[in-house]
Structures are given as C-alpha cells and as structure tokens.
Amino acid sequence: MGRTHFMIAAAALGVLGATAVPAQDDKPKATGVVAVRQATMKANGDHMGAIKAILTESPDLIGQVEFHAEAIKEAAEYTPAMFPAGSDQPASWALPPVWSDAAGFKAAAEKSEDLAGKLADAAKGGDPKATLAAFATLGKEGCGGCHQTFRKKDS
Ligand code: HEC
Questions:
Q1: CA pair distance 96, 40, nearest whole angstrom
Q2: Which of 4, 57, 121, 141 has its CA 20 to 30 A from that of 89?
Q3: Among candidates 138, 85, 73, 71, which has minimal Cα distance to 94?
Q4: CA 71, CA 39: separation in Å to the nearest integer?
Q5: Contact 40, 78 (CB under 8 A)
C-alpha cells in the first residue's frame, strides 16, 4: 500500500471512529432517581427474559418462575415512588402523563403488580401452558399497558 492509500485508509477509519463514538456520547447519562428506575426496569426485562427462557427452553425449571415473577411484582409496587415530581431530565424516557395523570400511572403499576402475582400463582400450579398465558398477559397488559401511555416509543 502506497503512502497516499495508507493516509486515505487511516482517514476513513478515523471518520468511522469519529461517527461511532459521539453517537454513544450524545446519549445523556441517566443520573439520580432516573438511573435507579432505568436500572430497575432493565432488571424487569431480564426477569421477563429468564421466565421466557424457562418456559420455552427448560420447562422442568418452572418452579423458578415464581422468584422472577415476585421480583417483578415488588418492582411494580415500588414504581410510582421512583417517579417523583420533576424527575424528567433528558436521559429519561418517561412521558409527561406520568405526572399529569399520576392516578393513571399508579393504576397501571397496580395492574402490573396484580398480573405478576397471577403469573407467580400460575407457575406454582406447575402448568407450563397456563404459566405461558399469564406471562404473555403480564407482558402485554402490564408492562406494555403502562409503556404505551407513559414511556416514549423506541424509534
Ligand atoms: C407503571 C408503569 C410501568 C410498568 C408497569 C412497567 N414499566 Fe417499564 N418503564 C416505564 C417508564 C415510564 C419507563 C421510562 C423510564 C425513564 O426512562 O425515566 C420504563 C422503562 C423501561 C425500560 C427501559 C429502561 C432503560 O434502560 O431506559 C425497560 C427495559 C422496561 N421499562 C421494561 C419493563 C418490563 C419488562 C415491565 C414489566 C415486567 C415494565 N417495564 C413495567 C413504566 C413502566
């Protein structure tokens, strides 16, 4: 490779690097209670992933679903307290109705809590099909029900 080609290649790499890194840096870092609730929500997602893996990949472990469901249930109970008034700094994906419709937000958290309890009960019953149905309902009406109104869309 001649020197000019080398320079062009290096410049091209530099440009790629330069575009890749700021894309990450542009995303403001979550601070304060926003960091707490985003980490808790991520844990919710991981618990849901574990439940799905148990039910679809290794149903013999159905006895462990209850643990994950109870963690989700408790997180739902704590959710309203993780959204104090004014905690809408840019890193947050929470939408204004979280605060303007606080009663609706609390009701959505309670609904998710209730559905997580039903999932734990279904798992205790030991029937993978009924447990999968309760899991799907929690995802759609519990997590999804709240996100639809109270969280910015992914795109
Ligand atoms: C009562 C409302 C509510 C319920 C119930 C709820 N969420 Fe959330 N979730 C939110 C809000 C609001 C945000 C945005 C928080 C922020 O960015 O400040 C969020 C964010 C998230 C995120 C993104 C976290 C991040 O890194 O930014 C994930 C993942 C998530 N939720 C998963 C779940 C799962 C899984 C469930 C159900 C087991 C669930 N959520 C139930 C309201 C809810």
A1: 20
A2: 141
A3: 85
A4: 14
A5: yes
Q: Report CA-CA distances (Å) from 98 to 78, 114, 124.
A: 14, 20, 33
With a 6 Å cutoff on the Cβ, whether 76 touches ligand 1 is: yes
Render pLDDT for 98-128 as a digit per residue (tens, 0 to 9). 999 999 999 999 999 999 999 999 999 999 9
Mutational pocket test of ligand 1: of 29, 37, 41, 140, the residue with most ligand atoms within 8 Å of the beta carbon: 41
Q: Is 131 in the pocket of ligand 1 (CB under 6 A)?
A: no
Can you list the residues of the chain whose pLDDT is less than 50? Answer: 1-2, 6-24
CB-based contact 65:131 (threshold 8 Å): yes
pTM of the model: 0.86
Task: Tell me how far apart the alpha carbons of residues 148 and 70 are, in angstroms, rounded to a whole number.
Answer: 23
- Residue 32, sorted as left (phi over 0), alpha (psi -120 to 50) or beta, turns out to be left
Residue 45's CB: how many other CB atoms inside 10 A?
11
Class of residue 75 by CB neighbours under 10 A (exposed 0-12, middle 13-18, buried 19+): buried
